Amino acid sequence: MLPHTIGEIDPPQRLLMGPGPVNAHPRVLRAMAADLLGQFDPEMTSYMNEVMALYRPVFGTGNRWTFLVDGTARAGIEASLVSMVAPGDRVLVLNFGRFGLLLTEILARIGAVVETVDAPWGEVVPMDAVAAAIERFQPKVVATVHGDTSTTMAQPLDGLGDLCRAAGALSYVDATATIGGMEIAADRWGVDVVTGGLQKCLGGPSGSSPITISDRAADAIFARRHVEEGIRRDDITDGTGIRIGSNYFDLAMIMDYWSEKRLNHHTEATTMLYGARECARVALGEGLAPRYARHGAASQAMMAGIRAMGLTVFGDERYKMTNVTGIYIPDGVDGEAVRRRMREDFEIEIGSAFGPLQGKIWRIGAMGYNAMKHKILITLGALESVLRAEGYACPPGAAVDAALAAWNKASIT
Amino acid sequence: MLPHTIGEIDPPQRLLMGPGPVNAHPRVLRAMAADLLGQFDPEMTSYMNEVMALYRPVFGTGNRWTFLVDGTARAGIEASLVSMVAPGDRVLVLNFGRFGLLLTEILARIGAVVETVDAPWGEVVPMDAVAAAIERFQPKVVATVHGDTSTTMAQPLDGLGDLCRAAGALSYVDATATIGGMEIAADRWGVDVVTGGLQKCLGGPSGSSPITISDRAADAIFARRHVEEGIRRDDITDGTGIRIGSNYFDLAMIMDYWSEKRLNHHTEATTMLYGARECARVALGEGLAPRYARHGAASQAMMAGIRAMGLTVFGDERYKMTNVTGIYIPDGVDGEAVRRRMREDFEIEIGSAFGPLQGKIWRIGAMGYNAMKHKILITLGALESVLRAEGYACPPGAAVDAALAAWNKASIT
């Protein structure tokens, strides 16, 4: 490929109804077109403070330490774990899908002693099993995913904080796939660190990870503070704990950067910050309760449409994430051929699956800017047509009608 | 601060003439307003391949492995070091400023055995001192910064690769502050891994780190490959080397993501990728040689203007980076008051300094979209006015005239 032949960016107008990323809200992209500021410019630091204020309600918290990690959602996960966990620390992971496995993977690299409390893909971990595991294993940290898109399950988290605090453990929640679409209640759950991403229910691009940290967890992290040489200052003293294994993900230095200390750590990803700020403004402008209800209506509509086609929804419906739906691929249908026709004929993306579910289910998302009635109806109509073309007979028009009725019912109640 | 009172993004139109970030090229911001794509969408993977092709000439390399790390420039540095260096490995760092210290800091957290070969701030490390240190220390990896904005010095790198390869060492270069403004010659230097950032001479926002990796270094990194559970595949086998200490920065998995294997690692930061792609298109469209000459003319103009005001340029001019100029703060002048007036009266940002240079020099940048004749003239005219207001007398109009003459002379030759 010759560089001079590479033209202007001009992506197709694709409707992204997979498990994320999804289409960004136009207001978010417009906000990201604003010109840059120096990282210690008073206007820039004001924007940083505004981001902190905007994300507190999004996380359901009053935590002072609520800010952004510069990287994708996975960067927020790793920053949390490497800052909370030292080599040799015991960590209990609630494991009910691919992203539970990711937590164990990151922790293994940190050198943690990891134990999991497992549920089969498509179920969640009962809280009494968590309690028993905490009692048995005596972890220093308990880590879990909130909604795991690989299985479409959302782990109930009420009560988790009490269990952890009673055992003297810190707690971590990866809310990448639910933040902005399902309620995040960091304070009510009583959990210590929660992270997210923009590219799912917040309707922004991947590349910035909102995070919130309780004072208790912040104290533990600051005890490991080690300011890098070259930017040492008299007003910032190192802690006595084990140094955090990463510089980029050292949340102690990043908190010092976001505090009035304004320690010079990395150069803030300004454009991503503008985007994250607008994501939260859009969400709070709509109102969090109506926004969660909209995702709930989307889930009801999607399930009704899928079932009207004679298809089966995957997993335990009581714990299903509202923003993504797993659908068994019917016998005799080529799942990848369906996805290809959806993309090529309708410019709609739906998702495949991972691990034990690969080739068994599709995952259709309706999140953020795409958790809208018309986008669900269009997707179901297209899927019906594609399934027919691939040899699967379903009652014509039934899916769209059922989905519309379910949406309307869910929106009234 | 009440979230609902936080309004639309509307930064002041500030001219960023510090050591970076600088104003983004408008084409880059426009490219970033394009809507998103799924990460394995054929159009998206085409864009990824185009980014690889576009950054090869920018790095002066034919390396297959040329792509982006999702995070700020510092993320690219840490990804390189954690993937190249295992605990206990011996690493030699060329240390001539704050960012040399940053390399030692990251390496210490990795558990490397670090030795430095030092130069005072304002000078560079002589290549014979590097050769002697390699001979003495027998490092596995040699790491250096190319241009260190903290001192405005650019380390000459011709010959470094030969020294390293003769000693069986891999080499790493942090080119964050020079890429797109001064020549990066990865292949001619013979170095193995080079990383950059967008927010300086490439005229984009912070948040994406271009990287290039030689086949030799890629082999060493793939030998440490360990694909995470949940996404294991029969066609990707783990290596036998020590597992890389970070999941997010595991360049083996990231290369598998950017290769035709398309391993599902993080969700690519699509909007930042659009921006990085456009940064390279702008640079190659101008032509790299004319672009480097433009930065050279900017340096000549800035130095001529500074000297016409009776001020003194910091550091060894033979090795001065073209895109940033250190200026001694004259006796009796309050450096911070000058910066404040520059910002408040003229909406121009100039930089302060770190460590031993704090309070001693200003740093004025002219990079990327801001390495332009008129922006240098405006900055110098403003500085003259501000210095006069702060009690420093300088010949009226001399700086601008001298800078214009120097620019014109440098642009002709």
From TrEMBL, chains A, B:
The modification N6-(pyridoxal phosphate)lysine is found at residue 200. InterPro entries: Aminotrans_V_dom, PyrdxlP-dep_Trfase, PyrdxlP-dep_Trfase_major, PyrdxlP-dep_Trfase_small, SP_NH2Trfase/AEP_transaminase. This is (S)-ureidoglycine-glyoxylate aminotransferase. Belongs to the class-V pyridoxal-phosphate-dependent aminotransferase family. Substrate binds at residue 363. Residues 43-221 form the Aminotransferase class V domain. GO terms for biological process: glycine biosynthetic process, by transamination of glyoxylate. Pfam families: Aminotran_5. Keywords: Aminotransferase, Pyridoxal phosphate, Transferase. Its cofactor is pyridoxal 5'-phosphate. GO terms for molecular function: alanine-glyoxylate transaminase activity; L-serine-pyruvate transaminase activity. Its EC number is 2.6.1.-. It is an enzyme of class 2 (transferase).
